[in-house]
Amino acid sequence: MFRPIIGIISNSALLGDDYPAHAAGTMNSAAISEVAQAMPLLIPADPRFVTVEELLNACDGFLLTGGRPNVHPEEYGESETPAHGDFDRCRDKITLPLVRACVERGQPFLGVCRGFQEVNVAMGGTLHPEIRDLPGRDNHRMPPDGTLDEKFAPRHTVKLTEGGPFHKLFGATEVLTNSLHGQGIKTAGARIVIDGTAPDGTAEAIYIKDAPGFALSVQWHPEYNAAHDPVSRALFRALGAAARDWASAGSDQLRRIA
Questions:
Q1: What is the pLDDT of residue 254?
Q2: What would you report as the CA-atom Rg of the chain, rounded to the nearest whole angstrom?
Q3: Among 5, 123, 138, 241, which residue's Cβ finds the most Cβ atoms within 10 Å?
Q4: CB of 121 closer than 8 Å to CB of 217
Q5: Quick check: 110 and 243 in contact, CB under 8 A?
Q6: How far apart are CA 200 and CA 184, in angstroms?
Q7: Taking 70 as the threshold, does the pLDDT of residue 258 lie above it?
Q8: In terms of Cα–Cα distance, which of 118, 65, 56, 128 is closest to 93?
Q9: Are 239 and 233 in contact (CB under 8 A)?
């Protein structure tokens, strides 16, 4: 069976105290391989090693993963504060232009958690550094204790716009999701449509208006238990189908040129 290539954006990390690494959870690779039916390719998100053009040519789609570091507030015109947490400036330099290029080309991508926030910033939006500090908002952060299953357990519902792309994808206007994030959308970027919200009003699902390709993002972590959760399964199957369509279109174009 033909499998398209889906690039998984990694995060900078340290193994031990002093060994630099690029890392992404294996659950991301499992979701891409087992559910999207694509070949996962881990991308070192650092402009010293890769260019956006190279990534666009090498991959048929992208998974913009979650990660502990946040998008630097300078990317949306604000000053750094302690509330903004840790950063990965190298990842910012790859993912933000990558999102814009994918939107323009129609190349598919799925944004998850930090990836969701990157998509909003790439399109000119801004972020709240700590949404739990806002009046009327809940604490959406990962529970500090418990097993992995407990940390990634469903936490709240997401209400989706009737007739919108997420409603059509899931076959429901309300779904149950996990919640492991501290930041959230303050202002939506150009063409960003908020298509799903948590009970406290936090944006949880977005798409890009008039994007020529698959351009969906969610604030939760669908990669966890993706093969068994019906919401996650629908998202990754759709991403895989979009990547196969992209790869097939590229192959047809090469055949016409030859």
A1: 41
A2: 17
A3: 123
A4: no
A5: no
A6: 12
A7: no
A8: 118
A9: no
DSSP output for 62-109? EEE---SSB--GGGGT----GGG--B-HHHHHHHHHHHHHHHHHT--E
- The lowest-confidence range among 27-41, 76-90, 167-181 is 76-90
Integer Cα distance of 85 and 5 in angstroms:
32
Domain ranges of the chain: 5-257
User: Which pLDDT band holds residue 52 (cuts at 50, 70, 90)?
Assistant: very high
Q: What angle do CA 10, 13, 16 make, to 5 degrees?
A: 145
Q: Which residue has the tokens 């809940």?
A: 138
CB 207 within 8 A of CB 189: no
Q: Take residue 116 and report the two structure tokens written for it.
A: 């969701």
- Tokens found for residue 243: 């990547």
The tens digit of pLDDT for each residue in 63-110 reads 999 988 899 999 999 988 887 878 899 999 999 999 999 999 999 999
Q: What is the pLDDT, as a whole number, of residue 82?
A: 82
Q: Which two tokens stand for residue 147?
A: 């097993």
The dihedral of CA 2, 100, 98, 27: what is its sign? negative
CATH topology of domain 5-257: Rossmann fold (3.40.50)
Q: Say how far apart CA 79 and CA 72 lie, in whole Å.
A: 9
> Residue 150: what residue type?
E
Neighbours of 135 (CB within 10 A): 4
Q: How far apart are CA 70 and CA 118, in angstroms?
A: 9
Split at pLDDT 50, 70, 90, the class of 253 is: low
Tokens 């031990």 belong to 16
Helix ranges (H only) for 106-229 are 114-122, 148-151, 165-170
